[in-house]
Amino acid sequence: MAVDLIQVKPGQKILDVGCGVGGPMRAIASHSRANVVGITINEYQVKRARDHNRKAGLDALCEVVCGNFLQMPFDDNTFDGAYSIEATCHAPKLEEVYAEIYRVLKPGSLYVSYEWVTTDKFNAEDEEHVEVIQGIERGDALPGLRAYSDIAEAAKKVGFQVVKEKDLAAPPAEPWWTRLKMGRLAYWRNHIVVQILSAVGVAPKGTVDVHEMLFKTADFLSRGGETEIFSPMHMILCRKPMS
């Protein structure tokens, strides 16, 4: 859906902002036959993404660059389109990454982003709401979740025209958080396995702590979804004006 929204054609050059190990990149390259350039600040992710691209036979269409999406090593007006999926939420200031994306896009090109946000149901005076949101921020290393109303404002501030905005996680969409739920029995089973692997040196030091953190974070995410105070799929489609 992302690549269809930005209306790219085979052979065009598009940007994946915060590509990670390139899952969306490969799906989009395969679907569109466009040339996708991904940027991630993590060198390990660059290596993994390149390995996956090669194994998928898509390394001719997919390029991965190690860099900071707040200071991208690309010329102005380079790309025919751009997208970011659950990535720009890691930017301390959304306007800064949006401004960089705006800079490297060709005039008239489209950009779509899926943002992590608090919804209109979030109440900053509700202690449980605050606990859940802070748990998500802490567990996912976020500088602070933004309100859904801040996204379009940030895009307009740097010059984008907002074409469409929609929370793709809102009903009647199927609950996205159910896959994160894990029963206590399953958790303790996995925890014991992780402890054994760590004790014999198969799993690196710190794996047990990371497993515990991920379990707690999954719980906060599930609670955020169930109460509808959090969405990981607030979609915004923007256009860089022709002039």
TrEMBL record:
The keyword Lipid metabolism is assigned to this record: yes
Pfam family, one: Sterol_MT_C
SUPFAM superfamilies for this protein: S-adenosyl-L-methionine-dependent methyltransferases (SSF53335)
The protein's annotated pathway: Steroid biosynthesis; sterol biosynthesis
Role noted for this protein: Catalyzes the methyl transfer from S-adenosyl-methionine to the methylene group of 24-methylene lophenol to form 24-ethylidene lophenol.
Family recorded in the similarity comment: Belongs to the class I-like SAM-binding methyltransferase superfamily. Erg6/SMT family.
Keywords assigned by UniProt, alphabetized: Lipid biosynthesis, Lipid metabolism, Methyltransferase, S-adenosyl-L-methionine, Steroid biosynthesis, Steroid metabolism, Sterol biosynthesis, Sterol metabolism, Transferase
Organism whose genome encodes this protein: Brassica oleracea var. oleracea
Enzyme Commission code: 2.1.1.-
Name of the molecule in the record: Methyltransferase
Keyword Electron transport: no
Residue stretches making up the SAM-dependent methyltransferase Erg6/SMT-type domain: 1-241
GO MF assignments: 24-methylenesterol C-methyltransferase activity
Enzyme kind, highest EC tier: transferase
One BP term from GO: sterol biosynthetic process
Catalysed reactions, semicolon-separated: 24-methylidenelophenol + S-adenosyl-L-methionine = (Z)-24-ethylidenelophenol + S-adenosyl-L-homocysteine + H(+)
Top-level taxon of origin: Eukaryota
PANTHER family: 24-METHYLENESTEROL C-METHYLTRANSFERASE 2, PTHR44742
